[in-house]
Amino acid sequence: MVVVDAMLGNAAVAIVLALVALVIGRVCRSPSVRHAAWLLVPLKLLTPPLVPVPLPVLPTAWGAPAEAPTIRAVIAAPTHAVAVPAEAADAPGSWERLRPHGTAEWGIAVWVTGALTWFAWQGRRVLRFRRRVLRACAAPPEIAAAAARVATALGIARPPAVKTTTGIGSPMLWGWGRGAVVLFPRELLARLSADARDTLLAHELAHYLRRDHWVRVLEFVASGLYWWHPAVWFARRGTEAAEEECCDAWVVCGLAASPRRYAEALLATVDFEAELRRPCLPPGACAAGHDARLLRRRLAALLHAERPSRLRGGVGVWAVVAAALLARPVLLAARPESPGAVPAPSVATAPGGAPLTPPPAHKKSPAEPRAWAMTAAPGGAVTVLARDSEVLLRFADGSSRVLGPGRPLAVAFAPGGQRLASAGPGPLVRVWDERGNLVATERTTTAARSVAYTPDGAALLVLDAAGEITLRDPRTLAVVAEWYVAGAANSCCVAPDGKTVAVSFGSWLAEDGWVELWSVAERRKVATVRAAAPVGAVRFSRDGRALVVGCWSGRIEWHALPSGTLVAERQLCKDLVANTVFSPDAAALPLEPPPEPPPISDLVPFTGISRER
């Protein structure tokens, strides 16, 4: 009965974790946090409970008769065993109380029978689908090339194979370890454009990057062992919903794909799946559009998707998680009150009578988090630091203030540095004063991506994820003019004369990028500058006769205007581009190309260490 008691204790704690995950799902918008909260439920169910925690919650009548308190001598031994109070050993557990009635044996029999039935049924489905995977055809060369390009953008060194088959309703990632494979419905390929197909490939590769296929293994085992537990099924649904939103954020924000194209691909997948009579969805599959009930929430989340980031937590958070996973609740009968008084523990005192207190421990000051982007106001009175979890204003006197609520994705200073505009999170566009006090707030149609002031400060330009550029009043954020650009726009920058705005284009899924120059007064495109890689940020020279183009890969190009002729190119640090995307005031992109490094043939080879004699 030791194993049964341990599993029942885990099941009890899993109910508490599921309730906590439900509350987190109501108050937290981050899909990564919701996914981690739901993932604790199956982890707790399968983690061996090593630390017993006595819980006297059963009726007093179930316990042993009250006796006088006894003192047991404990001799220290070189073991790591955990000491259990004496009443924990004397009082019968819940299963021992039910043993005379035969309820425990019947309950265990039903439990084991259900688990064996589950694994036999699901194992048969896995074997049948494995035969389907072995018969699947390799993806055409253009799809394989697109998958390799997306995997490189995501940082996947060894991506899974991509195959096409029939009978499945949506693209999916299936398998475990090196045997994982991305399956694509053969009939669906004919309905999708190349961009829509690439977004679905990116979604499935994001599952592989996040190791969601291993989470399916965890859910498979937990569902079989605890088939009767409602928290298991709630956790499965919550985990899969959070995973889909996390992968959607990777596609839209992490890879800069068009939200409109991605939404159209999801709708086409759901429409295709609805036409199939019985689409096949095997156990352990990570499918892109298998749950149509979540589609509305996912489409709404695309408008407010933020750049995916890793979960961060202090030592205290991880200690609480480890304690919850390793704790083993021991259900005991409540101990009756004893008439005798329990002596209070003695306290060591100094010779003068004062209690001895240990000296305070020296605490190390925590290291300041790293900022991935930084920009300063004209004059340097205020510095903006962009971190993974916050955007911080650092003032000249050393004080600081978090810019929020919500973490902005891009900022821009007004001329003179008296105002600061921010884009994000989501569709929020806000203006702040020099001390970080909110002045005005408005919302764009979709997620705001970039902001830029005109040189005279008379207007503010806002670029959103749908390609809409709005010209706004810098004080009230009222829309003065608007127009649209076509493509995956990333950031914008205004020319020194204030007459032209440069918009950078290029998704991680593409091989090249470009910059479009638009007339602010006439709201029409006047020129296009082509680049050799997807463009993240741009910067004008001081006289407006040159354009510095920063590609996501770290490639920097210098083009002459208005011809767009390539003058020079260098491979520099990617952080320069990310800094300029965050703020056009960062001035991170160099206006002049640095000297070229010497060719390898001119370098003197190293032959050894010379010694003086």
Task: Describe the structure in your own words.
The chain has 613 residues and is an alpha+beta fold. Helix content is 33%, strand content 23%. The strands form seven sheets. Strands 2-3-5-4-6 form a five-stranded mixed beta sheet, with helices on both faces. The protein has a four-stranded antiparallel beta sheet with strand order 8-9-10-11. Strand 21 and strand 22 form a beta hairpin. The relative contact order is 0.09.
In short:
The chain has 613 residues and is of the alpha+beta class. It is built from 14 helices and 27 strands.
SS elements, strand count: 27
What is the overall number of helices? 14
Mean pLDDT figure: 81
The level of helicity is: 25-40%
Distance between the termini: 80 Å
Class computed from helices, strands and strand pairing: alpha+beta
Q: Give the low-confidence spans.
A: 62-101, 338-342, 608-613
SSE topology:
Layout: H1 2-27, H2 31-46, E1 51-58, H3 86-90, H4 94-98, H5 103-135, E2 137-138, H6 141-154, E3 161-165, E4 172-174, E5 181-185, H7 186-189, H8 194-210, H9 212-225, H10 230-254, H11 259-275, E6 286-287, H12 295-302, H13 315-326, E7 327-333, E8 373-376, E9 382-386, E10 391-395, E11 400-402, E12 410-413, E13 419-423, E14 428-433, E15 438-443, E16 448-453, E17 460-464, E18 468-472, E19 479-484, E20 489-494, E21 500-505, E22 513-519, E23 524-531, E24 535-540, E25 546-551, E26 555-560, E27 566-571, H14 574-582
Parallel strand pairs: 1-7, 3-5
Antiparallel strand pairs: 2-3, 4-5, 4-6, 8-9, 9-10, 10-11, 12-13, 13-14, 14-15, 16-17, 17-18, 18-19, 20-21, 21-22, 22-23, 24-25, 25-26, 26-27
Helix pairs in contact: 1-2, 1-10, 2-9, 2-10, 2-13, 5-9, 6-8, 8-10, 8-11, 9-10
